[in-house]
């Protein structure tokens, strides 16, 4: 990491979107991020919440879950326990490798690719029961406990689009940490 809080993060291995409500999202050649909205054409894009459970609670809340990022390393981890998961299977928009997404603080900026797209990390994905409908027992693999008993959410991170642009597999990720004390991610 450089002295200004910037460092190379990793690489995008897949991008996914779906215009209809479905747990999985098909992989695409590219996705377009729209500032303040999310992934163009994706069912979860919008200024206000789009996830069904959140809409039922309060449809006027801001959408802090515009873009879902997940680390490919999780797929290998659950694969060791007999589960088969591929990019887009768990509903993420951007699948990464080489970056510890879960360790990033709230407010981290992720510069995705060369087209200028920037997302701001808002928090952790809160995995839901749909994961067990996808593969029975998988939820226990992405929600666990650490040695102190605290809940650990491994289902990726959520973000909002600050600057739009096209994102493709193979694109680099540049990480810019926020100034000041770093606030650990919480579920959003």
Structural features, described:
The protein is mostly beta strands. It has a single domain, classed as PK beta-barrel domain-like (M1 Pyruvate Kinase, Domain 3). The protein has helices at residues 52-57, 73-79, 130-134, 139-142, and strands at 6-16, 27-28, 31-34, 38-39, 67-71, 94-97, 109-112, 117-124, 143-145, 151-153, 157-163, 165-167, 172-176. A hairpin with a 3-residue loop joins strand 3 and strand 4. The longest helix is centred in the middle third of the chain and has 7 residues, at 73-79.
Mean pLDDT: 92
Which range does the strand content fall in? Answer: 25-35%
> What structural class results from the helix and strand content?
mainly beta
- Uncertain parts: none
Number of strands: 13
Helicity level: 10-25%
What is the gyration radius calculated from CA atoms?
Answer: 16 Å
- In which order are the strands of the major sheet placed? 1-6-5-11-8-7-13
In DSSP terms (H or I, runs of 4 or more residues), the helix count works out at 4
User: Which architecture name does CATH use?
Assistant: Beta Barrel
CATH class: Mainly Beta
Element pattern in H and E: EEEEHEHEEEHHEEEEE
Label the overall shape: globular
């Amino acid at each position: 990491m450089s002295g200004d809080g910037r460092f190379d993060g990793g690489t995008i291995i897949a991008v996914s979107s779906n215009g209809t409500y479905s747990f999985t999202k098909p992989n695409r050649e590219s996705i377009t991020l729209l500032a303040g909205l999310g992934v163009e054409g994706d069912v979860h894009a919008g200024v206000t919440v789009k996830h069904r459970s959140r809409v039922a609670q309060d449809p006027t809340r801001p959408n802090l879950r515009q873009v879902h990022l997940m680390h490919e390393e999780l797929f290998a981890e659950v694969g060791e326990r007999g589960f088969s998961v591929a990019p887009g299977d768990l509903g993420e928009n951007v699948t990464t490798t080489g970056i510890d997404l879960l360790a990033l603080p709230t407010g981290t900026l992720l510069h995705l690719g060369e087209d200028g797209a920037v997302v701001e990390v808002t928090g952790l994905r809160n995995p839901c029961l749909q994961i067990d409908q996808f593969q029975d027992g998988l939820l226990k693999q992405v929600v666990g406990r650490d040695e102190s008993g605290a809940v650990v959410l491994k289902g990726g991170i959520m973000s909002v689009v600050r600057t739009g642009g096209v994102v493709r597999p193979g694109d680099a990720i540049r990480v810019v940490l926020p100034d000041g004390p770093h606030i650990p991610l919480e579920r959003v």
